[in-house]
Amino acid sequence: MIQVENLTKYYSDLCAVAQINMEIQKGEILGLLGPNGAGKTTTLRMLTGFLRPSSGSVNILNQNIEEHPLEIKKILGYLPESAPLYHDMLVYDYLNYVADIRGIEKGRKLDRIRQLADLCGINEVMHQPINELSKGYKQRVGLAHAMMNDPEILVLDEPTSGLDPNQIVEIRQIIKQIGKEKTIILSTHILSEAEATCDRVVIINRGKIVADGSTDSLKEMAGDKKFIHLTLLNADFKSVDTKLSNIEGITGVRRIAETDTQLDVCVDCRSSFDLRAAIYQEIKPTDWVVLDFHQKTQTLETIFRELTMESA
Amino acid sequence: MRQAVHIFKKEFKSYFVSPIAYIVIAIFLLVTGWFFFATFFLVGQANLRNFFSMLPVIFSFVIPAITMRLVSEELNIGSYEILLTMPVTVTDVVVGKFLAALAFVVALLIPTFAYPVTVAALGQLDWGPVVGGYTGAVLLGAAFTAVGLFASALTRNQIIAFIVAMAVCFILTLIDKMLFFLPRSLLGILTYLGADFHFQNISKGIIDSRDIVYFLSVCFLGLYAAYLALRAKY
Questions:
Q1: What pLDDT digit, counting tens, does each position of A128-184 carry?
Q2: Measured CA distances, A235 to A263, A264, B179 (Å)
Q3: Is A76 an 8 Å CB contact of chain B?
Q4: What is the distance between the alpha carbons of residues A57 and A59, in angstroms, rounded to a whole number?
Q5: The CATH number of domain A2-219, selected from 3.10.50.30, 1.10.10.920, 1.10.287.3510, 3.40.50.300
Q6: pLDDT per residue over B200-224, tens digit each?
Q7: Mind telling me how many Å the CA of B4 is from chain A's nearest CA?
Q8: Cβ separation of B78 and A102 shorter than 8 Å?
Q9: Which residue of A31, A43, A151, B203 has the fewest C-beta atoms within 10 A of its own C-beta?
């Protein structure tokens, strides 16, 4: 549905986005992840036709965005970061104006606005000026604006930033609900959000794609790693290290924290082994007291850190 | 062009939502009313020459106040991004906003119809120059509005937009009076560039194509410059 080829953007000498290639299928919810300043917003702005790429191309439904901007804008809904809406307009007037620009017929206009108000939960603020709304409501009005013409493609730039936890859950539900039939591209730097809402995740760093795939495949790709976290009483790091390093499958023991009595260690293991039993057997004869003992697999967080810290 | 109509409606309405519109109208009427009637009874002539002769100077600071927010505000709060990712072209934006501001200038002039009506009640008023004067005022307003729109498209700061537009309008108004020390031949060209010179021609009741062409050219140049300024941001 969307083909992005060698997309590059320079701001004078600064390269914000470098040679991005990706293809987005119909019905996909794609999460664009990356640290601050990675080029997420710039990429989205080029996808929506707001910014002209320095080189490369964006094709949507086989139409080049620079050659057919109006056709593409008609099937695209966009919510920029922090929903910059007209301050002095009432919510209803604003949505009415958007409906006019989007070419919704007079007869259907009111119905459509009501539908969106229900979907986004903004019925109670319809007659308030936009600058008096809280951030969460503003974001919802922005979402209603983006969905006005029932777009095929919805582009959302950090749709949940600045919302409270309840609102985040609600917005995610809305996104999931529309994502069933629409293509959605959203950017975020909250990893759990990408994990919860997206079918596919693209991680970019310094303008380049460093990972692309479903969250599960990313975890697999990141390799053969598992961690066992241990908190012990009456143990010293040296003896723990020597004892555990003998076990086959353990690649390293790291000290996390140590006080006079208590020791936190993280044991790196290969993921093909389950070493919990072996570790327990090693600890049993000693007089160490186990306070905490749990196993973690590689999380998206650690993958993200690895991918985006390397080049820094 | 349907989109330009929607933008026009929204912009025109938003003038009257904020208090700025009413403040500008009140100040405009107060200033013109005072300067016109302060000397009207001393001169003792039933015409509006005095009113029209000071209009270019008053417009030079009233119109920039009307146009300063047109684009600057959008650039500042970021709604410009939303506007341009809807199915509109830059031309729609420029035309819609220009027409909205021009309509507001016309709305500003409507209450001043009270002046010719009052004068006509007091003496024999020649309506020719009045009609010419109002035609000229709309043309002048259009030219200054285009300049103001351009200034507003340059910056996200409304105050800078106001000052730039005011400076350009002032120079256009007073260019022939400021440069009296230049050689005569050069002065002729500069006079031709002055808005005041053309406006005073029309307000005498002589509608000359040269004056109309002048105002339309300034208007077109301003709008085209605004178009280019907005294109460059994309």
A1: 999 898 888 888 899 889 988 888 899 999 888 777 888 788 888 888 888 888 899
A2: 7, 10, 93
A3: yes
A4: 6
A5: 3.40.50.300
A6: 888 888 888 889 999 999 999 999 9
A7: 9
A8: no
A9: A151
